[in-house]
Amino acid sequence: MKKGRRQWIWLAIGAVIIALIVYNLSGSPEWRNFRWDRFWASIVDARLGLLGWALVSVFTTYALRAYRWQCFMSTIKKASLGVLFAGQVLGFSSIYLIGRPGEFVRPAYIAKKENVPISAMVAVLVLERIFDSLFLALLLAAWLFFEHVGPTTPHEQHVLAWVHWGGDGLFVLMGVMVLGLVLFRLHTKGVTEWLLRALHFLPPRGRNGLRHFLHTFSEGLVVIRDWRVLAKSVASTAALWVMNTMVFWLVFRALRGETHHLPWLAAAMTLFCAALGLVIQFPGIGGGYQVGIILALTGIFSVSVEKATSAAILLWIIMSVPCLGLGLVLLIREGLTFKKLEALAEEERALAEVEEEEVPYRRPTGASLPRSPGAHERE
Q1: Closest residue by Cα to residue 283 from 15, 5, 6
Q2: Which single residue of 77, 183, 197, 327 has CA 20 to 30 Å from 333?
Q3: What residue segments make up the domains of the chain, in order of their start?
Q4: What is the distance between the alpha carbons of residues 288 and 217, in angstroms, rounded to a whole number?
Q5: Structure confidence at residue 29 as a pLDDT band (50, 70, 90)
Q6: What are phi and psi for residue 286, nearest 5 degrees?
Q7: How far is C-alpha 13 from the chain's CA centre?
Q8: Across the strands, what pairs with 282?
Q9: Residue 286 pairs with which residues in a beta bridge?
Q10: Residue 257, CB half-sphere, CA atoms under 13 Å: how many?
Q11: pTM of the model
């Protein structure tokens, strides 16, 4: 199936899911009595000072992500923190604009700028997702342990059941992933050979590419054995999710009223629900992210739909608009466009699929993105 058609199919599935959620919500008394005047008043009355601190926290998360990538890459190359920061901003800007296909921009941009194998950067991306998922599970565990919310309506019971279902699934997934990581790191050669035998139907080029990726990923997992690098990676991930939660908490306080007195753990729980909704991401408008926020605030913390919608919209603006603005500045500085950035990601994705273990890593001669200043000195 062609890539464009596959993307449209997934977008259609996501649209149907969102439509069903909105349809079910619209049948509730709260949404039938939605007050637009309250909605606009809550946004206009927001405290700009706290929104400013939320903005600072957002950019701090990108700096923390860049530092964590530097830790993950320490066994491959000492990467420039500036390049890694730019990669985070451009990567998330692409996700906001083109949806999930933009996820590959980060590893593609960093691989090109730092002149490292794209398969190594994809391995770093996988490692990042594992660390993030673990700490999301910890946020959920902390909320379940310290906060006891008793549902009083069928809607609240349904939302809590949805959260528990998502949490249980995440805990199971994390257990499987951690166990798989440990087994893979201890028995890399055996696991690689088993996978190649199981996927014997792949063409030779595909098997070589898979072997190369698994070898590179195994090298990246050295952070698990290097206690110093592992400690830095864990600490930066913890700080990252504290700051992510801080963004939510500051926006809640900025809106005054019903969300003003929500505790920090309530912001963490809302963040968890928003992360579950990220599975559905529409270019330019988000999607499940906002729905997750609204469901958490109305269904768990009994916030009015007007205030919950205001929080979801303000969080989307705080998270996406400044990132897109800085992303445009970085693109202008490098003489690029988001279209070229997407093409770069596709080029690197294709390169990753054909890399062979026996062939030394090399760049296509037509690569147009300049390397970072001083890259040859670091090599």
Answers
A1: 15
A2: 77
A3: 45-356
A4: 31
A5: very low
A6: 80, -110
A7: 20
A8: 286
A9: 282
A10: 20
A11: 0.73
